[in-house]
Amino acid sequence: MNALSPSPIPEKVLELAKSVNAEGGRAMLVGGCVRDRLMGRPVLDWDVEVYGVQPEKLRELLELLGRVDAVGEAFTVYKIGADLDVSLPRRERKNGRGHRAFVIQGDPFMSFEEATRRRDFTVNAILEDPLTGEIVDLFGGRADIHRRMLRAVSSETFPEDSLRVLRAAQFAACFNFDIEPATVNLCRTIDLADLPHERVWGEMEKLLLGAEKPSIGLRWLHDLGVLDHLFPEIKSLIGVPQEPEWHPEGDVFVHTQLVVDRARERINDLDYPRKVTVMLAALSHDFGKPPTTEFIDGRWRSRGHEDAGIAPTEQFLDVLNIHTLEGYDVRGQVIALVRDHLRPGEWYKKQSEVGDGAFRRLARRCELELLYRVASADSLGRNAPWVPVDKWFDSEAQEWFIRRARELKVDRRPPAKILMGRHLLEMGIKPGPRMGEILNAVYEMQLDGRVTTLDEARAAALKL
Question: What is the pTM (predicted TM-score) of this model?
């Protein structure tokens, strides 16, 4: 991790740095791109701060590189394409309550120390000269990368931006870093009530999708006090006994951590909305256990926790402001997956009694491919370290479930209706409530396999 990664610096960054140098200034790579290069991670987005050049001149230099999009009012960030942000070093002063309550002033003649002191963590406060390769590290960021440690740059400015508490948990999860105890204590003092929904989701999205083990982030959300402020639904899982294997370490919160890690392993081939859906459903699947868990007949049981989990799941999604993503009904699917996450295991135990129609009807409520992944993660997430290996769960029930769903071609969507309204109109049936009743009745026959062709569907409609 001490050597720079082979990720090449884009030519447009080098051209900008040369033109800035010719004007007597200096262009420096800053923030995450420097951190990721030092860590050997691929760099996707580049940030450059320009020192010693007035804003008007900087704009002229940037326009030589191509189209320039300016973002912001009090302080301008120039976007060059999709992967390069250019700005002046800036001062930020808190002038009220809220995530955006800052007075921001760009100053091209700030010192490196003053400019980097405003950053969140030392690992993000490192500068690199793209022309010479010189590293400017005034706060020990490289040493913290080597130690795999997140440490606040300044205890005075860090609390001014409450989003940094969530970023701490997110970075710890994505980089598998520890967080310095003093920074942990600092985070616990910060009120998160001013954070807008979209910023909360922005960090949770990175935690759930960007980390190989999101459980690391969940533990840090607890340790940093985030659950108390934002996610009481997750906090309520702590201390709830986990059925069927109970151990002082093995409460529902621990089980949920294991489940989200198993779910994360099962989403790489999905599109973005479905990745989000699986991860949110895995995180929420046991929200109904706190009010339903009882010790009955010598065992901890959580009867009806699937239905009891719907309301807290809705509240959790409200905090994240999650509804549709890219036209996909994430919210509706997550709630359905929470409600039905035990269905594959239940049906496996009585598979001779479960007909094709049950699969087809379930496919109308939720996407069975996603249900399979959540249920499989839930099953494998019971394999905690303290559970004897000979009692570990496997995913046999879920594999049976998805085989049946795929054989019936309902793993990704329910069967398309054979009989449509236009067919009834062709048959002389007039529009009205009765038409809808006939269409629904024939579709139910189709789900049961009693109607398989259009001719059969028309005949059934005539009988109705």
Answer: 0.91
